[in-house]
Each structure stands twice: as C-alpha cells, then as structure tokens.
Design goal:
By secondary structure, the chain is of the alpha/beta class. Helix content is about 20%, strand content about 25%. Helix 1 packs parallel to helix 6.
C-alpha cells in the first residue's frame, strides 16, 4: 500500500501520520480549512446568580439563549431533560416563530403548493432528529419564557444584562449565544434589494419567495452551492424556466470533485435546468415598475429573469457580541471544546461558534444543522453537569433534491469527514456513486444500513489498498472492502 496521511488530533499530541480513508455517496451544511487551535486558553469558572431587582423584562433569568434557530431548540430540550428549564430559561429571538428545522426552508417548504409542501408546525425542532415537535405550546408547558421578534442589540458583560431592539432590559446568569447566520446580500446599488430579488434565511424569506414563484416564468439562481442547488430543484417542480449562474467552473466546488459535480450538472440538465458558469455579475436590472427584470453580466450581456434568488453564502451574526472575542480567521465567536467564550458565563454554539475541530487539529466554524444540534446539546450538558470531555465533531453535510411529489427521481447524498487527498470514485450514479478521499480521512454516506458504516469509516480512517478499492465493481463492494479494513485495524 502506498502511504497516505491520516489526520489524528489530540489535545496533547501532534498529528500522527498513517493511511487514511474518506467516503462519500449520494443516492437516486461551511467547513473552514485548517487553522491550528492549540494556543487558545480558557479558564474554568462558576458564576453566582443573584437578582435583587424587578426592573428587568424577563422573569426567567438564570439561563438566557439569544437566537431562535435550530441550536436554541435543541438547547431548550437539553435544559428540560436536566430539569433546569421551568422558570429558569428564557429564549430571545428575532423571529416570529418557535425554533424550527431550518433546512426545510430550501427543501420541502419550497415544494409546489399541490405537492404537500412542508409548513409549520410540522417542522419545529426537534423533529429533524426524530425528537418531539416543540411547538410554542411546548415551551409554555415546560415553563420556558419566549421573547419573539425582538433581537438583542447590546450587552453589558459586567452587569450581565442585554438590551433588545424594543428597549427591554434582560438579565442573565449564564448566556448562550445562538444567533445563527445572515445571508450574504448583493449591495443595494447594484439591485440587491429590488422587488423580485430573494434571499432565504427564515420563514418570512421563504414565504416571500413562494409568492414570487406563483407568478414567475423565468427564475435565475445566483450561486452554485447548497442554496442554489436546492432552490433550483424546487423551481423545477414549479415547471419554471430555471438557470443557475455562478463564477466557479463547477457546482459546489468546496465539496464536490469535478467528476461528481459533472454528474450532478447532467442530472439538473435532464430536469431542464440551464447553467452559466465562470461568469461575473455587474448588476441586476429593473423594469418601469421597479421590479427586477434581468441579470447584467460582467461582459455586458443580460439574462432575463422575473425572480432571482441569491445564494452566495452567509455571515455569522455576531453583533453585538464582539466583546466576548472573535476569531479573525474563520469568523464567529471563539470558544473552547465546551463552547465557553473568553468571558465567564457566556457560551456560543451553532453557526457562530469557532471551535476546536478535535479530529483534524484546527479551528473551524460549521454552518450545518447537525453541528447546531450537537453543539447545543454538548454545551448545555457541560454547563449543567459534570461533563468535561471536549466536543469531538465529525464533519457532516447532506442534501436532498427533487423530492417533491411526482418527481421522476429523488436524489440525496451525505458527506462525512474532510475532502482532502486523492479520490477514488465508484459507481455510475445509476442509482449510486461513492467517492473516497484517501489521505486525511473524510467522506460521505449512502442509503439504508450503510449509513451507519460511513461515519465509522470517516472517523477511523483505516489503512486501505487503493488499487483494490479502485477495482470494486459497485458501491456495495467498495463499502465491503472499506469495512474489512476497519475490522482489520480493530483486531490489530
């Protein structure tokens, strides 16, 4: 076997080098690149909670969560499981809804109206992981105080207080920052705020887009990443003229191999989606009524469109929490392996947390629902119990497209690990394809019982003979080869 690297990180040892394995596989979430993390220090603390004033707007002051996204819902459930929510926990959100499973907004929520689209209360947390549906009534029953549509605009870490947009003064004993991300937008001066131009981060955004889709004829999606791919697939269900425009040379460049991207591009073309790759956008143009009518490209040509969706990434919503310490490299709020910030009593989870990615020995910030769920639960357990083991996350991403009722082919994929190293691709995407990254250990997964195997492969990164793997005649055979490698190492 030719040597390949395996990235194994620990708190006290340097990287060990060994053979590695990575796998990914679709069936028919932004991981930031390496940044060493060993120099960060956080001290242990215990914060006394004393309230002697009645001038605060929140009744529940011992624990406060700022942000109403996925992580907040899973954190709330963990507080309840520990018997520490009733009369103690307050959640402050800018949204009008109790926490929900945000991935639905670019998947089932956008299905055509006659194909049973997802709607609240159907996808409140924690149904995405098979848990209880936490409706607004659930929070009331559990004694959790909810403050809706009132984002926090300032913090006083000495007085342990927060001020909201409406002027409410809130008190906290321990604070968890869970403010997710905001969509990256086109500047207003180039048409980024025109009627008919859409961004998707919350239910209101998705509702606005659906109103446009009902009247649309020509849809342009700007961005070839998750949002672009999922929204384009939804637009196909509406039987709309659909085009994806992006500056890169392939779809989902940060994750897909060129070969895999080409397979997906062909799938989308079979469904009528057009592509315009490697181009820049100068501005968006409007008609006499002020509504968007076209995309003007850098070369001066135009693409007609009456509905445009911008999916060019997102930014961590860290304001007004810069005072607790930011990570200038990956963005977000710097935390340790228990999600503690540098300010005692303040934690950060989910999209905004820049945390030590233990197995790859670097700091990362992950924008994905799986990390939002796991980080929230780990943080609350560490806060409320004697749990001291650090967060050990295996990067995981997934997508599902063309799943609406009546679709000729429903497609989904999962990815575990880190896409570093040489690749071995098995299968022809009819219906399956798997990609193994052999070097630093990472990959994705596939359907049925094999899902349980793939996280194990990505985490254990066993030694594997590349030549043997390349000869596999099917995805199933390739997985058996990889599984045998795991068993050999377990016995060694």
């Amino acid at each position: 076997m030719s040597p390949v690297r395996k990235a194994m990180a620990s708190l006290s040892n340097s990287l060990q080098l060994k053979h590695g394995l990575a796998l990914w596989c679709p069936h028919s979430s932004s991981l930031t690149r390496p940044h060493p993390s060993s120099s960060i220090r956080f001290r242990s603390f215990h914060r006394n909670f004393v309230v002697a004033s009645s001038s605060f707007s929140n009744d529940n002051r011992e624990f406060v969560i700022v942000g109403g996204g996925n992580a907040a819902g899973y954190a709330a459930r963990t507080f309840v499981e520990h018997g520490m929510a009733d009369g103690r926990l307050c959640i402050v959100s800018k949204e009008a809804y109790a926490p929900y499973e945000r991935p639905a907004l670019t998947k089932g929520y956008l299905f055509p109206l006659d194909t049973k689209p997802a709607r609240l209360p159907g996808f409140h947390t924690c149904v995405g992981s098979g848990g209880e549906r936490q409706t607004p009534e659930w929070y009331k029953e559990k004694g959790i105080e909810m403050i809706y549509e009132d984002p926090v605009i300032s913090i006083d870490t000495e007085k342990q207080t927060l001020t909201t947009n409406s002027g409410k003064l809130l008190k906290y004993g321990s604070l968890i920052i869970s403010t997710v991300c905001t969509a990256s937008r086109f500047p207003g001066k180039i048409g980024g705020n025109l009627p008919g131009v859409h961004y998707i981060r919350d239910v209101a955004d998705a509702d606005s887009l659906i109103s446009s889709l009902e009247k649309a004829q020509k849809v342009v999606i700007v961005g070839g990443d998750y949002i672009g791919m999922e929204v384009a697939a939804a637009a196909v269900g509406w039987k709309l003229d659909t085009m994806i425009i992006f500056p890169e040379n392939q779809l989902l460049q940060r994750l897909f191999t060129p070969s895999l991207a080409q397979r997906y591009e062909e799938l989308y073309k079979e469904n009528g989606v057009k592509f315009l790759k490697g181009v820049s956008i100068k501005n968006l143009e409007a008609g006499s009524d002020g509504r968007v009518t076209a995309v003007k490209l850098g070369d001066g040509s135009t693409i007609e469109a009456d509905t445009i969706i911008i999916g060019i990434g997102a930014k961590p919503a860290v304001s007004p929490f810069e005072v607790v310490g930011l990570n200038d490299t990956v963005g977000g709020i710097q935390v340790d392996g228990l999600f503690r910030t540098s300010v005692p009593g303040i934690f950060a989870v989910g999209d905004v947390a820049a945390f030590p990615l233990k197995m790859y020995d670097r700091v990362a910030r992950v924008e994905h629902v799986d990390h939002a769920r796991q980080s929230a639960q780990h943080c609350v357990k560490a806060l409320l119990s004697a749990q001291t083991h650090t967060y050990d996350y295996l990067p995981y991403f997934y997508s599902r497209v063309f799943e609406y009722e009546g679709s000729p082919r429903k497609v989904w994929w999962q990815f575990f690990g880190d896409n570093v190293g040489e690749t071995v691709e098995i299968g022809n995407f009819d219906p399956k394809v798997a990609t193994f990254w052999i070097d630093s250990g990472n990959g994705t997964s596939e359907e049925s019982s094999e899902f349980k195997l793939l996280p194990e492969l990505a985490r254990s990164q066993p030694s594997i003979d590349k030549a043997i793997l390349q000869k596999a005649s099917s995805v199933e055979e390739a997985l058996e080869i990889a599984k045998a490698s795991v068993l050999v190492e377990q016995k060694a």
